[in-house]
Amino acid sequence: MELRHLRYFVAVAEELHFRRAAERLHVAQPAVSEQVRKLEQELGVRLFDRNQRRVELTDAGLAMLQEARHVLRQAQVAQQAARTARDRQTMRLRVGYLPDALPASVGRALRSLATGTPQVQTSLETGPALSLIDAVREERLDAAIVCLPAPTRGLQVHGLGTQRAVAALPAGDPRATRPAIDLEQLAPEQVVVLPRQSNPAFYDAVVSTCRHAGFSPTLVELGEAHVEHALLAVSSGAGMALLPESVADRYTAPGIRFLPVESPQLVLETAIVTRSNTEHRPTAAFLHALTRARRLAAVPDTPARGIALAA
Predict the structure, then answer these.
(1) DSSP E strands, 104-225
(2) Rg of the chain's alpha carbons, rounded to an integer?
(3) pTM, 2 dp
(4) 3-88 CATH pick, 3.30.1360.40, 1.10.10.10, 3.30.1700.10, 1.10.4160.10
(5) Main-chain phi, psi angles of 262, to 5 degrees
(6) Quick one: the chain helix, strand, coil %, rounded to 5?
(7) Angle at 254 between CA 251 and CA 258, to 5 degrees
(8) Is residue 166 within 8 Å of 262, Cβ to Cβ?
(9) Range list for CATH 3.40.190.290 in the chain
(10) How far apart are CA 71 and CA 65, in angstroms?
(11) What Å distances lie between residue 43 and 22, 64, 133, 237, CA to CA?
(12) From 3.30.750.200, 3.40.50.800, 2.115.10.20, 3.40.190.290, which CATH number describes the 93-311 domain?
């Protein structure tokens, strides 16, 4: 039994006239007669008594009419539920970001998107760089903010500017009163860093820059990619921490000072990656908001303010 059979049957039952039912359904009258005949054959009962002068429902037709209307109403509910779910999916934006590198332009763009396009439902998640990139490829994320270089072949890469490194020191450290810290002052210091997998571009830049400068600090690599853990390690005397500068304003910790690291080599390029040729409207709106946020910014990218992100 098809929904079409029920729609045709209900139209005839309510009009008690095959021609008027056909006009209501915007089909030819023979098509209505044929579908009703097929329904009667499938059920094995007559639904209508009809002759050249009139059409009447049989007892079976009366019983069928009530249930057919109920089925058609439920079918409409199911269709609407599916369309609503489709529209919700269409207007969902899933963004991934690194735990330690989030340019201010991203926060500004998300705020602008929430104001200008409130129907877009944005979800945010953090994770290791390679996992975020894979999630974009596999369509589990619509966009990811990562640091370069990264394996982005086949994806669209949109630059978000550069970040320097900052050193997180205990406030009681004699160097904490300086406006900046030289890279050479890290030797032979223990340096706390997040796991390499969380942000390989930054980790590798630290290692290669130090080697280029002719020294190798002792890296204390944390087991988990949580900035809070790095700051706690600094507070407990494990050494200073090296982090991208966007950390400095997103995170605060009593007794910690952030100092820029004076090194022209230790500069990190940040980008957002999306799928190529995507027609996903929320992604396009987000990219537009990012472009506008960066264009309107009067100063270079600084750490994002006023946006809370889950670690």
Answers:
(1) 121-126, 143-148, 155-170, 181-182, 190-193, 218-221
(2) 32
(3) 0.69
(4) 1.10.10.10
(5) -80, 95
(6) 45, 25, 30
(7) 55
(8) no
(9) 93-311
(10) 10
(11) 22, 10, 56, 83
(12) 3.40.190.290
The whole-angstrom distance between residue 209's C-alpha and the CA centroid of its chain comes to 34
Provide the β-strand partners of residue 269.
Answer: 148, 162
Question: pLDDT by residue (tens digit) across 8-17?
Answer: 999 999 999 9
With tokens 């969380």, the residue in question is 198
Question: Helix 18-25 vs helix 29-43: angle between axes, to the nearest 10 degrees?
Answer: 110
The SS3 of residue 158 is strand
Query: Rounded to an integer, what distance in angstroms lies between the CA atom of residue 63 and that of residue 46?
Result: 12
C-beta atoms surrounding 245 within 10 Å = 21
Residue-wise pLDDT for 13-61, tens only, equals: 999 999 999 999 999 999 999 999 999 999 999 999 988 788 999 999 9
Distance CA 163, CA 202 (A): 10
Residue 228 CA: distances (Å) to CA of 52, 210, 288:
85, 24, 32
Residues of the chain with CATH 1.10.10.10: 3-88
Q: How far apart are CA 269 and CA 169, in angstroms?
A: 24
310 pLDDT band, cuts 50/70/90, is very low
Residue 64 near residue 47 (C-beta atoms within 8 A): yes
Give the 3-state secondary structure of residue 202: helix
